[in-house]
Amino acid sequence: MEIIGLVAGFCTTASFVPQVVRTWRTRSVADISLRMYLLLCLGVSLWLVYGALVGSVAVLLANSVTLVLAASVLGMKLAFGRKKPAPPPRR
Amino acid sequence: MEIIGLVAGFCTTASFVPQVVRTWRTRSVADISLRMYLLLCLGVSLWLVYGALVGSVAVLLANSVTLVLAASVLGMKLAFGRKKPAPPPRR
Fold it and tell me: Are B44 and A4 spatial neighbours (Cβ–Cβ below 8 Å)?
């Protein structure tokens, strides 16, 4: 039964890898929600606190990897989101 | 201690709401990774199976809401991703 939980955790954590790769390659972040990744990083950080408090290695492991991935997307959203082309001058 | 887990689960699940709202409003999905949401929906579905097997209402509740939200983004990615402007005819 626990194997299903392990595979589930692997999938939900690994799911952020293709987003990190795509965003790194395209440098395009317009369609990505800043609020989603802010809230996600907060939630995953709280999961880490919870995992430490209850002493769950599985919760700590899965969420530390997820935090690195989610924080990467958040960082790229902040970094690449700024670089907008300057609007043409009005005359 | 459990309150931290509950708040963590609320944050990670609710984090998908702003992405659903943004994608619904903009209809723009180019920067969203299809593979991420495919893998995420698979993983969250497996969490539901796991929750049912171990009889955890918390796991079932959090993941059923997350599945609805993640599947919404996946559905919009598939639906809106197709509508590309036709390329100009070659002569």
Answer: no
Which of B27, B50, B56, B80 best probes binding to A when mutated, by most A CB atoms within 10 angstroms? B50
CATH number at residue B71: 1.20.1280.290
Residue range B55-80, pLDDT digits in tens? 888 889 999 999 999 999 999 999 99
Q: Does B43 touch chain A (CB under 8 A)?
A: yes
Distance (Å) from the C-alpha of residue B89 to the closest C-alpha of chain A? 26
In Å, what is the CA distance from A16 to each residue of A40, A53, B32, B54, B87?
12, 25, 11, 26, 32
Nearest to B29 by CA among B76, B87, B89, B88: B76
Note whether residue A88 is domain-resident. no
Mean pLDDT of chain A: 92
For residue B4, the chain A residue with the least C-alpha distance is: A50
Is the CB of residue A42 less than 8 Å away from at least one CB of chain B? yes
